[in-house]
Amino acid sequence: MKIFNDADINNGSLFTNNTDLVDSPLDWQKRGLQQTSSGYGAKLTTSRKINFNGKLYRIYCTCYSNVGSCFFVTKGKKIFVH
Fold first, then answer.
1. Is residue 48 part of a domain?
2. Residue 43: inside a domain
3. DSSP 3-state assignment of 1?
């Protein structure tokens, strides 16, 4: 697992791959449930976390139609994960 820091951010985005993330599903995710009935929303909780500046942050996803954007929030700032 890679530990990311402020130097890894490029224009508000952080580029990574699945091996750099921690799989940490919540109980309802383990049971196969989804957060909304449609599966769409502005801040959907994912089962992944990212290690940023020595702290684990939950990754969220905004998903409408067939497009999703993943991000985490640190110090009130959204950092998009690609």
1. yes
2. yes
3. coil
pLDDT computed for residue 55 by the predictor: 96
Chain centroid to CA 41: how far? 14
Buried b (16+ CB within 10 A) or exposed e, 25-45: eeeeeeeeeebeeeeeeeebb
Is 1 among the domain residues?
Answer: no
Q: Contact at 8 Å (CB) between 38 and 28? A: no
Nearest to 23 by CA among 42, 40, 46: 46
Is residue 58 one of the residues assigned to a domain? yes
- Residues constituting the chain: 82
pLDDT one-digit tens code per residue, 19-48: 999 999 999 999 999 999 998 999 999 999
